[in-house]
Amino acid sequence: MELVKPEFGLIFWMSISFLIVVFLMRKFAWGPILSSLKERETSIEEALNAAKKAKEDVANLKAENERILQEARNERDLILKEARETKDMIVNEARSKAQTEGDRMITIAREAITNEKLAAITELKNQVATLSIEIAEKVIRQQLSNDDKQKALVQEMLKDVKMN
Predict the structure, then answer these.
(1) DSSP symbols for 49-113
(2) What are the residue boundaries of the structural domains of the chain, listed by start?
(3) Does the pLDDT of residue 145 top 80, yes or no?
(4) Segment 60-69, tens digit of pLDDT
(5) What is the Cα–Cα distance from 42 to 38, expressed in whole angstroms?
């Protein structure tokens, strides 16, 4: 039962031992423990600040990326619009040139057709004239093959000449 009812000497030496342990702990352990706690607190605070700054940087970068993407979209739309306008202009210009060239070719073809037609008409007239002369020559030879017919024809021509 001695342990349940300690004596004065036991309490005294236990108190002295406790104070020595507290003194030693304060001298050698609490300073480093408190400083390491302070360092840890500081490092946690710095880490939180760094995380907050990183979060802000990420938000800024995200906003910057959105702005850059929007600029890229706007530039893409502008380039596509210019490309469409250029395409339309080239197509219209090609149509205009094709129409002009087609009209020119039609005009040239009409002139060629007219020239060929005139040449054909002239050739036909020359052939008709040649045939007429050949036919007249054959008819006259037949009619003038005999002397009586020649004299009658000369008389008839002289009558026509006198009247005019």
Answers:
(1) HHHHHHHHHHHHHHHHHHHHHHHHHHHHHHHHHHHHHHHHHHHHHHHHHHHHHHHHHHHHHHHHH
(2) 26-163
(3) no
(4) 999 999 999 9
(5) 6
Q: How many CA atoms lie within 13 A of 105 on its CB side?
A: 6
Single out the residue of 129, 160, 157, 128 nearest to residue 144, CA to CA: 157
Q: Dig out the tokens for 162 from the structure.
A: 């006198």
User: DSSP characters for 99-158?
Assistant: HHHHHHHHHHHHHHHHHHHHHHHHHHHHHHHHHHHHHHHHHHHHHTTSHHHHHHHHHHHH
Cα dihedral 83, 87, 89, 90, rounded to 10, equals 130
CA 42/CA 46 separation, integer angstroms? 6
- Chain centre distance of CA 84: 6
**Contact between residue 139 and residue 133 where contact means Cβ atoms under 8 Å apart:** no
- At 4, which helix (H) or strand (E)? none
Whether pTM exceeds 0.90:
no
